[in-house]
Every structure is written in structure tokens, then in C-alpha cells.
């Protein structure tokens, strides 16, 4: 068996972020190699997110024996999204497939995902239809989060949280990941015109190691969802958000002032300087001014960001004709 690294770009890059998964890594390496060897030209990129066990030493030996294995080791724990982002940055494959190191994702599903990509899709998202997790702490929060993410982003998937997905390389070219953003890649890619589908995949119960997921991650996901919504709808026109809030504040201030004047003339003859509605009016006017100024500052920052890096505010899928075609 030839396990030397190929100089040409491999078909697949398997990206495995992990943290203290020493007990699962040998079996995972075995399953990946047995599933893919002879079918695809592939590489495996393991990203050690600051582990304190012996997982890195095992993978170092794998690298020495198998040139298809790459290992990236962080100085400390930066989180799953950062680890996955590092794996994507160093991957060379035409298709990038992340999966968890806890053996709950099944590498045997990878060929099926590749077949699905061959039907013309850019992303194949795994769906843990028969999920082997606790209902109260994992399944129920996940269902609520998936429903909410679908409603906010407009991209309806059953399982945003499934790490096992297949991405064409070009889909991730302009995607930078922060926080817990890795789960939102399908939504971010869809806004750029990517074609997405789901595939029911096998999900297995954890047999070794300790889960790194908890209910606190749900809070992080909700906060990141607000960021995703803003980036998807207003990243090139933030004045619409802050200016809109400013306009709402102005309207409320006007209503409160009118009510206060009516109370002074027709009602309780309450002096304006003693009416709490006047205080609210002044507060809302100040808030409106601040919102509008924040919107203007955000506009300046967004324009500087795009123009300084030469980043367009659009994404082109295909182009026929034009100066680049002359003489060809």
C-alpha cells in the first residue's frame, strides 16, 4: 500500500479537530484508512486543540508511517471552530470533509457524500436522523437551535450541528470562521449562491472519552446566530440596521411628546417638566442620534474593509466573454 503523500492536489481532505480524544484516535484512523484507501486520493489533517493526553504522540507515529497524515498542534485550547478553520487553511483537497474525533460520525458515510456532491451540489450536510445522544441535554436543545437557525437564516436544515459535511473547496475560499461559526457555514455559503443538500448519516453512541459539549454552547450559538444574521443581510449596508433603530426611536420620541402635550392641554394639566414622558422623549432622541452616528461609522468601516482589500460586495458564479477572453 502506497502511503506516501501525493504531490498533486488530493481529491479529499479529511479534517479532524480534537481535544483529549486519545482513546478514540486509533480506531478513527483505522476506519478512515480502511474506508477510503483505494477509492480516493486523500489526506487526513488532525488538529490538536491543546490536548493534554497522548493523542498527539499517537498521531506523530502515524505521520511517520503514513505520509497522508498531517498533524497541527495548537499551543492551547482555542475551540472547535478555530481548529476546524486551521484544518481548512492547510487542506489541499478539492473536497473538504470535517468530522468529529469521538467516533460518533461514521467515516463509511463519506463515499455516499461524495456521490451526492457528484450530483451537482456544493455542500452535502450530514443529518443525524437517528441520533444517539441524551434527549434532554443534547437532542431537545439541538432541535430548538436547528429550527431557530433555519428561521433566521432562511436555510432549512435538520441538523446544523452535525460536523460531518462535505464542502467543495471553492465554497470555503472566502469564509472566515470565528466563535462557533463552523455550524453556520451552509447558511453563509447559501447567501453566496452555493447549492446545498442533506444526507441522512449514521450516528453512533460515544464509547470512550468525555463529551466536550454542554448547554453553555447553546448560548454561544444563539449569540453567533445574531452575528450571522447581521452579516448575511446587512454586512454591506449597516446603516439600514442602526439608522432603522434610530428612526424607530425618533418616532417613539415624537409619540411620547405628543401625548405629553395632550396631557398638558386636555388632561391633568401636568407641567411638561414634571411629566415622565418628556424624559423618555429626550432619552429616545439621544438614542436615535447615537444609532444614526453608529450606522454612519459602521458604513465607513465596511467601505474601508472592502476597498482596502479589494473585496467585491458580490459573488460571481460564471462569466462568459470580457477582456480576459481576448486572444484565447
Descriptive overview:
The chain has 328 residues and is an alpha/beta fold. The chain folds into 2 domains: 12-234, Spore Coat Polysaccharide Biosynthesis Protein SpsA, Chain A (Alpha-Beta Complex); 239-309. The protein is 45% helix and 11% strand. It has helices at 25-36, 55-65, 80-90, 110-117, 135-153, 185-190, 216-234, 239-266, 276-309; strands at 12-18, 42-48, 69-73, 95-98, 123-127, 165-168, 196-200. Helix 5 (135-153) runs parallel beside helix 7 (216-234) and helix 8 (239-266) packs antiparallel against helix 9. The radius of gyration is 26 Å and the shape is elongated.
Structure at a glance:
The protein is 45% helix and 11% strand. With 328 residues, it is an alpha/beta fold.
Major β-sheet annotation: 7 strands, mixed
Number of helices in the DSSP assignment = 9
Number of domains: 2
- The CATH architecture assignment of the largest domain turns out to be Alpha-Beta Complex
SSE string, helices as H and strands as E: EHEHEHEHEHEHEHHH
CATH class of the largest domain: Alpha Beta
